[in-house]
Amino acid sequence: MFKIYETELAGRKLTIETGKFAKQANGSVTVRYGDTVVMTNVTASKEPKDGVDFFPLSVDYEEKLYSVGKIPGSFNRREGKPADKAILVSRAIDRPIRPLFPHDFRNDVCVVNTVLSVDEDCSPEVCANIGTSAALSISDIPWGGPTSAMQVGYIDNKIVLNPSEEESKKSRLHLTVAGTEEKITMIEAGADEIPNDIMLNAIKEAHVEIKKICKFISEMKSEIGKPKFEYKSFSVDPDFYKAVTEKFESAMSDAVRNTDKEIRNDNVDKVAEEIKNLAIEMYGEDAEEEHAFDIATAVHDLEKHCVRNMILTERKRPDGRGIDEIRPLYGEVGLLPRVHGSALFSRGQTQVLSIATLGTKADEQLLDGLDSETSKRYMHQYNFPSYSVGEARPSRGPGRREVGHGALAERALVPVIPTEEEFPYTIRVVSEVLESNGSTSQASICGSTLALMDAGVPIKKPVAGISTGLITNPDDPENYIVLTDIQDIEDFFGDMDFKVGGTKDGITAIQVDIKIDGLTYDIIEQAFERTAKARAYIIDDIILKAIPAPREELSKYAPKIINIVIPQEKIKDVIGSGGKTINKIIDETGAKLDIEEDGRVFIYAQDIENAKKALKMVEDITRDIEVGSIVGGVVTKIAAFGAFVKIGMNKEGLLHISKISSKRVEKVEDVLSVGDEVTVKVIDIDGQGKIALSMKDLEVGENK
Q: What are the DSSP calls for 412-478, one per residue?
């Protein structure tokens, strides 16, 4: 049955339609916000997949270029694999909905958001978040929503909800918040050094609107929602788990208490072997195969219980640190001789090597997406090879996790990257994770700061990143602990990974992963306070001690760049007919030139002297020659009556014998030769453009 539901979101009409499209999906809605239209379809398999020990949820955000009236630029003119932006949106939709599925649910669930039409002032990302919540809510798929999402800006010291495209360009904050009626379930942000209190207020204001949409979706669900289907529960056999707990809780508790990750894992493996033997005692020789799920789940659940219980009741962490203590830190720069900038940053057993490369304007990344951004000059990429965790797996290229972590580190540094006018380079940083024990994305932020400073990029301030974790007591909501600088075991068995990057003066990036039904404002505020304190420590005690300021000189292997602005009408003169002039500059100097439509010219060369030579040639071409101008030139030809002087790439004037000197000149050759560099004054330009020059007039000026 076709139904339309209408409400208001941040002062604009929002419509959710259902029953018209994709009727065979478990749940289907179309969200309209302004002229933005997003269709969301959710489906679930009827039975769980064999051998799966996790919840197989997939979320896709499909950017269709027809939605903005574009034809794809690929060879076959169709959309290919998702762009990084689409992957990031998919992750932002996944994070708030995943914790709300039953913990013992193993059926495949697919969420597909298809962007059909885009109004630049009405975010398709927000529509996809809302559409996902609505489609899951009215479907028969077991899910504990609804949720909703909101984008927030900070413009002229005011918080703005769901800002328009024009407002977003002026905003110091690009924040996406998701939540239920009770709590916050996801935070994603890029920001220009926003203070903690303003960030928290922005989240709170977003939550007011989120609550309204959640209530709106709940009303839809109560009217047309399908009954949730029954599913096969994947929980450990309670009798077996009880026996495991009674026999091995003490041993597991001892096993997880070690600073070294490898030793801790070996200890846990030994306890796991004993648990397997117990299963054989209880179920027979075939237990390892027939009860593999119970064994694996029992090991996981017992380890999780011991880690959480230790932290909550004993106020101790597996590696013995204090609740707000950071692992040992180390920073070093200038490791690699031929790269433009390099740095190593370590935090405990997490180690990241970051390498900065400086390129030309032509090296900018071109973007083929739905928004107005067409290129970017600062790029951060993150690689997570299997050897970083001691595993033997071939590399298959970056996955969604790598794209997400790279984007987070990129957002954290963007606010401190110098403008193109200040530093006319394209900048790429690659972070290679060499060793992983939690918080590699935040180590990438620290390593990137060091590498950029080592490369001589004049960043405005150093940026650091840190993660906080959370352990809660389901039976006592007031009993929780926020952990500073979580390692992998605390992330894996904890309730959140709250990543914050920023300077000492404010936040530049946030990404929050939550495994429970949401966070309270008090937890968020405490996470902000902890991360601010940790960032200041990392910046002062590690980053600035490794390199106190960006290097004053670039690597000799980095291209040298000079930029100049020329009148737009002179661009054709620099290029020349068929590119003849610009190619001559390139041939004579070895430099590369990029000319923008607004008249900006970027000159690149490995040798600064070649760049300066090319600059002079451009200046000569674009210089306006007027009567009275004093210019440099080169003698190109000698005649009885004077000398011809080249005073620009394509201009030549006559220096008459009578104008060479105030003294009598019998023969031009007595004073000048072909190839001589001279300084002359333009004394006349006739109606045909012929230029008369004088050296004598400059002598008179000097005598005066």
A: HHGGGSPPTTTS--EEEEEEEEEE-SS-HHHHHHHHHHHHHHHTT---SS--EEEEEEEEEETTEEE
